[in-house]
Amino acid sequence: MPTTETVQKLIEERDRLQKLIKERDRLQKLIKERDRLQAKVLDLKGANEKLKTELSDLKNDNEMLRDSLRDMCCQFSGWINGGYSTNGLSALEFAFETLDWSDPQICEEAQCDEPKCKKQRTCGIPTDSGYRNVCSEHYIMLMGNIE
Fold first, then answer.
1. 95 assigned to some structural domain
2. 94 to each of 75, 99, 107, 115, how far by Cα in Å?
3. What percent of the chain has pLDDT over 70?
4. Do 70 and 92 form a contact (C-beta atoms < 8 A)?
5. Which residues are paired to 84 by β-bridges?
6. In angstroms, what CA-CA distances link 84 with 71, 110, 114, 118?
7. Exposed, middle or buried by CB within 10 Å (0-12, 13-18, 19+), for 108?
8. What is the CA 131 to chain-centroid distance, rounded?
9. Is residue 63 part of a domain?
10. Are 82 and 118 in contact (CB under 8 A)?
């Protein structure tokens, strides 16, 4: 028959083992939760990368659309005082607003090469001093000098 002391030691060992089992169970739950969270983080990282790619694509698309809108405004706008003008057309007014352009939108690179001429360049002509982009009025004048 076991002694009281032996029984007491066995009870203490049983209690200690029960505590260890509880701690093991708690740690296993934590490990499962950690694994679940790690999988979620990987999913979120993948989603984040996908969103970054989509955002980059949208930015590229937006820039391409703005460039196209800019080109259309340059092609279809009127010309006043050295720049493009809506001439009161609502579609162009909306396009100018979208591009954050003033009306007229001064465009020095589209102005005649002749000093102080603010007319729109419409013609190109080779001259003794190099190729010139000029308005139709100055083109006629230059053509007279060439012939």
1. no
2. 15, 9, 19, 32
3. 98
4. no
5. 79, 105
6. 11, 9, 18, 11
7. exposed
8. 38
9. yes
10. yes
Q: What is the mean pLDDT of the chain?
A: 91
Q: What is the CA radius of gyration of the chain?
A: 39
Number of domains within the chain: 1
Tell me the pLDDT tens digit for each residue of 60-77.
Answer: 999 999 999 999 999 999
- Which residues have a Cβ under 8 Å from the Cβ of 101 and sit 6 or more positions away? 73, 84
pTM for the full predicted model:
0.60
52-74 in b/e burial notation, b at 16+ Cβ within 10 A?
Answer: eeeeeeeeeeeeeeeeeebeebe
For residue 98 the two structure tokens come to 């979208």
Tell me the residue range of the domain where 33 lies: 1-76
What is the per-residue pLDDT across 74-124, written as a single tens digit (0 to 9) for each?
999 999 888 999 999 999 999 999 999 998 899 988 999 888 999 999 988
Alpha-carbon 119 to chain mean position: 35
